[in-house]
Amino acid sequence: MLSIELITTQGFFELDGGKWEVTNNIWLVGNESDLVVIDAAHDHSKIVEALHGRKLRAILLTHGHNDHINVAIPLRDETDAPIYLHPNDTMLWNAVWPSDKPDLYALPNDRIDVGGHRLHMIHTPGHSPGSCCFVESSSEVVFTGDTLFCGGPGATGRSYSDEATIIQSIFSQLLVLPDSTVVHTGHGNSTTIGQERELVLEKMREMQLNLPARH
User: Fold this and answer.
1) Which single residue of 9, 13, 17, 114 could bond 30 by disulfide (Cβ 3.0 to 4.6 Å)?
2) How far apart are CA 3 and CA 154, in angstroms?
3) Helix or strand or coil: residue 149?
4) Do the beta carbons of residue 118 and residue 112 sit within 8 Å?
């Protein structure tokens, strides 16, 4: 059985000269001996403490905004876990960590094995160019970062984001999942694909978007 644990940390999201106080969700995924962490926000010591001695296999970053990556390097230094980031968010990474690099560039169809389960990475641009989600199909769960929230699509309107792109990403990559799929988000409450489906389709109708091909 897939183990999923939630840690929350508080800090600031900074972009385009603005600064907002935020609470981030950090997800520990795996089993009683091996884990991956999804996003690395604000307080690496809290993440290390939650490991309880278990092996951290990877640090999976859903995107490159500072509030999702700002303790990635100290977490890697303490655990030796490699950092995965989509290459399209390199410019956001460099704004936080100009003297360091991720270990691996996460690409569509990458698979990360942990604790007898397999996470499948899907590219869902829009909130940022390199935004990604991680799906574990056998458990019907997806980790969406800031792409899809309880209440609809993630925010756009800032540098490197685009509303039409995020809606089309959700339609083609996430709405293909069963309605029962649990959506664990980067901020706020979890939801399901079924709960968010009509909100996304209504937004597409409002924006008069052509339906893209599903992958």
Assistant:
1) 114
2) 26
3) strand
4) yes
The pTM assigned to this predicted structure is 0.96
How many other C-beta atoms lie within 10 A of the C-beta of residue 139? 15
Amino acid at 2: L
**How many angstroms separate the CA atoms of 50 and 56, rounded?**
11
- The Cα–Cα gap between 75 and 83 comes to 9
Separation of CA 152 from chain center: 15
pLDDT in tens, 111-139: 999 989 999 999 999 999 999 999 999 99
pLDDT digits (tens, 9 = 90+) for 23-45: 999 999 999 999 999 999 999 99
119: closest CA among 6, 27, 23, 214?
27
Give the whole-angstrom CA distance, residue 44 versus residue 78. Answer: 9
Query: Is the CB of residue 156 less than 8 Å from the CB of residue 127?
Result: yes
Instruction: Annotate 76-114 with b (16+ C-beta within 10 A) or e (fewer).
Output: beebebebbbbebbbebbeebbeeeebebbbeeebebeb
